[in-house]
Amino acid sequence: MSESPDQFLAWQAQSGICGECGFNWDQRVIEGLVEQCGRDVAAFEDALESVDPHQAVAPGLWSANSYIWHSVDVLRFGAERFWTLSLDPQWGVPSWDEGVVAASRSYDRLSPIVAVVALGDAFATWRTAALGAPRDVTTAHPDAGTVDTFDLVQRNTHEIKHHLFDVLRSAQIT
Fold this sequence. Notes:
Layout (H helix, E strand, L loop, with lengths): L4 H6 L19 H20 L14 H24 L10 H8 L6 H21 L5 E4 L3 E4 H25 L1
Antiparallel strand pairs: 1-2
């Protein structure tokens, strides 16, 4: 499944609180959002200890292991988008097909223990790229029109929080 406009809009900035994960869309400080993302990344390890990492979190959804590996990719691709803002903003940032990436990486065949390490590493790189990206530059996105550093930090932070919620949701089912 590709990042269609409808799917992209699911992560589009809104106002208020996300009805599922509790993310506050009204936060406006990049550094605070980066700190929140770091806390949520750190919480994945404990969350994985309370679930069967290979069981679907709910019918029709991914497993906890798939969500953490997807979160690794969210942050890796996020860092690349910040580098684009910093180094080559006229190039723009593409959408990516999360279903194709998940299938090609075979998320459920990857180690959940390694996922925790990879997520921490991806966050460290993402954090450095996010905090170093220019705040006054925009770049093109095929679904959002233009995005800047704040937009990308906000969307990535929400996605990480939401996928932590997805993993914790599986703990309530088992």
